[in-house]
Amino acid sequence: MLDQWDLRSSKCTISNAILDGVEQSPWIKSSVSLGLVYSTIDDMKNPHEGIYATATTEFAGLGGDAKFVKVTGRGSVYQTLSEQLDLVGLVSGGAGYIYGYGGDNLRVFDHFQSSDRMIRGFAYGGIGPVDADGAGDHLGGTTYFNASAEAQFPMPVIPESFGLRGAVFADAATLYGSKLASGLVDPSSTGMKLRASVGVGLMWASPFGPIRIDYAIPVKKESTDDVQEFNFGISTRF
To answer: Peptide bond preceding 218: is omega within 30 degrees of 0, i.e. cis?
Structure first.
């Protein structure tokens, strides 16, 4: 295993922001979280009607090195568009913000990272501010907003008892802002910049749990973004 000096002197393309985070270890975080959930969903396994909303606040600083307040929220609305066709519409959105206090900059590992729950069609940690030294690493952001619209429908020909449903969707998101020390992050990448994608999905209520495969194509992206068109995971978006 490489030690900290070896990481600096090797030819590994790792950004200085990440190396600084490693060199500051061990890093102790002590935090408490408060979460609220509101739900009127009719069926958590196969929702057709209702609202599902969550809000979470995390406070770090009771002990250890981390000192921040992180607030996140997300909401989803399901509505049956056609009972005859079993067509279901879904609109969802989310936001998050992290604020560091106590005079210290936030670590790179404290910032928000993008994922398929934020926007599909991009790799994990594939959007947002990038390093200033050309390593190509995305360093996360202090603020994000995302929204999604989706239509879900039964697959033609295939019996309903098999549990297969299809989906078409459009996603949009932005991840911006940084509290890293000057010189570690490219300032031109920290502004609010919109990303968007469109795609199709296949959901299966398998005996092992809900499974979903998505194929998404970015229609608005930055040159520094990392694209990942296929995504495989659980089907629920709660």
So the answer is: no
